[in-house]
């Protein structure tokens, strides 16, 4: 039996983001043996179709139009709705990224459907497809099932493992030409902030600094540790507010949500708003001078000490590996 499930492949600077492959894996579960169809939207994107297939999609539909060269909610929803009308899927999976968070409610309202947003797990249990999603800033989890209509969910990056890439998988990559009506917003230019190293929201290792880092220069040892581990640097709002680093690094309720394999919190007290952005990390290491700091309550490993002594020692040890 099973159902057909569409997956939106998210493209950034000409490449598919990892969350697209995780979405394919989630879609495989949702399809329950049915077909998983990748959807790519952009100006000239069909060349990326094979990569989605090698991660488990059966076929890919590329919606190409020069008006879709940049993401706009209007353009993407017109494109995605055209595919949905054509394919009549039983499921739709999108990454819970900035793009996904913006687009998915618009699509749900057009489909007059529900939406399970920010799912961290999907599994088959007791004859139902059960989605798990964090609530109350990550303090609890709720389980959701869809009782009728299309199964529409966004999935949090870095939580659902993608399938192993198999270059030998083959499938059809077709293009769908869509007439994109006048867009209400048009992106003329994208000015990117210069960022160093790995993308924070997709990093497998995050080394984060708080007010305990004391200055902009205080972030240097953290950057070195992150670079040795192939990870990214993050921060608490305390550090951002104190101007030690840019707000684009902020992790938490009002910042980015990250779920790396390893999160190293340096000089961060562990306020609930910070925990909301990192407490689902697979392994948490906390370095803090204060043995009573709240961060130790969520840490798998706690080091009571001065971060300016501990971080360089860790860096030296990791360099030896
Ligand atoms: P502090 O609480 O000042 O902690 C600094 C820590 O560093 C202390 O525990 C101290 O013991 C330790 N320390 C000092 N020196 C050293 C040293 N040399 N070595 C080791 N440890 C040392 N915060 C976020 O992070 N993200 C959010 O998204 C966010 N959103 C918010 C939204 C709202 C509506 C509100 C009200 C607050 C929000 N906050 C957020 C702020 C949050 O409440 C905290 O104020 C903030 O997280 C504190 O940052 P901090 O842990 O770096 O600083």
From TrEMBL:
Its cofactor is FAD. Binds 1 FAD per dimer. PROSITE patterns: ETF_ALPHA (PS00696). FAD binds at residues 211, 236-237, 250-254, 267-274, 288. It comes from Mesobacillus foraminis. Belongs to the ETF alpha-subunit/FixB family. Coiled coil: none annotated. The keyword Manganese does not apply. Pfam families: ETF (PF01012), ETF_alpha (PF00766). One of its GO terms (biological process) is fatty acid beta-oxidation using acyl-CoA dehydrogenase. The keyword Lipid metabolism does not apply. This is Electron transfer flavoprotein alpha subunit. InterPro entries: DHS-like_NAD/FAD-binding_dom (IPR029035), ETF_a/b_N (IPR014730), ETF_a/FixB (IPR001308), ETF_alpha_N (IPR033947), ETF_asu_C (IPR014731), ETF_asu_C_CS (IPR018206), Rossmann-like_a/b/a_fold (IPR014729). PANTHER family: ELECTRON TRANSFER FLAVOPROTEIN ALPHA, ELECTRON TRANSFER FLAVOPROTEIN SUBUNIT ALPHA, MITOCHONDRIAL. One of its GO terms (molecular function) is flavin adenine dinucleotide binding. Gene3D superfamilies: HUPs, TPP-binding domain. Keywords: Electron transport, FAD, Flavoprotein, Transport. Residues 5-195 form the Electron transfer flavoprotein alpha/beta-subunit N-terminal domain.
